[in-house]
Design goal:
The chain is α/β, with parallel strands linked by helices and 316 residues long. The protein has eleven helices and twelve strands. The strands form two sheets. It has a seven-stranded parallel beta sheet, with helices on both faces. A five-stranded parallel beta sheet has the order 2-1-3-4-5, with helices on one face. It is elongated and about 70 Å long. The model has no long low-confidence stretch (mean pLDDT 95).
Length: 316
């Protein structure tokens, strides 16, 4: 396409974060004019058809009257979907193979953390107790994955290489080599019943909000363990606390929360059955993300086609 217009980077991040992203994006697409939103003048705002965003202020997007397309540098877009509503804008989220590999690494690492009883050994150290716990073979501990998109498939393969039997659940039927797959609500219940370690990788939508409440947590085998690398509101916090206190869930590794950063008064910080992580399981890499955004924009410039990959009605 001819007649390039400036591309704003719209973010509520701090100045250092915005500068880092702009440097990476400008390096990836030197022929484009990339500006922080605050650098746009009125004429430029009126020209912008595309914006690159990272947790943007919706009010700023509304100040771009010709805006047609929003490209997020993050994989998770539930907040953007809610903010954009019925605006008519097309939305592209980041689909980065590096992100899938990073998530698979995290899923394997923290599954092994639970599998090898590291929370118990840490507790014993604090108590100066020298006890060896019974060893369980990976083949004897089934891991259930909620979500079989790109992240879930990569995680499944990493777990299988570590000799864990793996089950996976998705909203609609999927087939993944070497994985027992389920779909639908009946399939979800079956997966929960057989998961010694449950890993949540689902997007947050109206259908998944509160998906794991008291009734579904009760379906897990006694002393099951849980990892949430998705979004906090998918799990009912109060129900999880009850399940942990009752021993239904032995330990939970939580990387995501309804409120972030997690308030210092939150019960999760001090609960002996919880490992708190600061939303660090699969951080976006500026360099690889910028290269993918650049390729999508180059395609748009050459063809006029917007690579919109988010269904606003579905939520992801």
């Amino acid at each position: 396409m001819s007649g390039k217009t400036p591309i704003p980077f719209v973010s509520q991040g701090d100045a250092a974060s915005v500068a880092t992203w702009l440097q990476a994006l400008r390096s990836a697409m030197p022929d484009e004019e990339l500006l922080a939103f605050s650098e746009l003048n009125e004429v430029q705002r009126a020209q912008c058809r595309l914006a690159i965003v990272a947790n943007p202020d919706p009010a700023q997007l509304k100040l771009l009257p010709q805006l047609q397309w929003v490209h997020s540098v993050w994989a998770g877009v539930e907040r953007l979907v809610a903010d954009l509503g019925d605006s008519g804008l097309q939305l592209t989220r980041l689909v980065d193979p590096r992100l899938a590999a990073t998530m698979a690494e995290a899923v394997l690492a923290w599954s092994l953390y639970l599998h090898r009883d590291m929370p118990a050994y840490a507790r014993q150290q604090r108590e100066a107790r020298w006890d060896s716990l019974d060893y369980v073979l990976p083949e004897q501990r089934r891991i259930g994955l909620l979500g079989l998109g790109a992240l879930g498939e990569a995680a499944a393969q990493a777990l299988r290489q570590a000799r864990f039997p793996v089950s996976g659940w998705s909203r609609s039927p999927r087939s993944v080599a070497g994985v027992q797959t389920y779909s639908g609500m009946e399939g979800l219940d079956q997966l929960l019943k057989e998961s010694d370690i449950l890993v949540c990788l689902l997007p947050l939508t109206e259908d998944t909000r509160g998906l794991l409440g008291a009734e579904r947590l009760a379906l897990l085998p006694a002393q099951a363990q849980l990892i949430n690398f998705a979004r906090g509101p998918i799990i009912d916090d109060a129900a999880l606390r009850v399940a942990l206190d009752a021993g239904q869930v032995r330990h939970a590794v939580l990387d995501v929360f309804a409120i972030e950063p997690l308030p210092s008064t939150a019960w999760q910080w001090s609960h002996p059955g919880v490992t708190v992580l600061p939303h660090c399981s699969a951080p976006t890499d500026c360099q690889t993300a910028s290269a993918i955004v650049a390729a999508n924009i180059a395609h748009y410039r050459n063809s006029g086609e917007i690579p919109a990959n988010v269904d606003l009605k579905r939520g992801y």
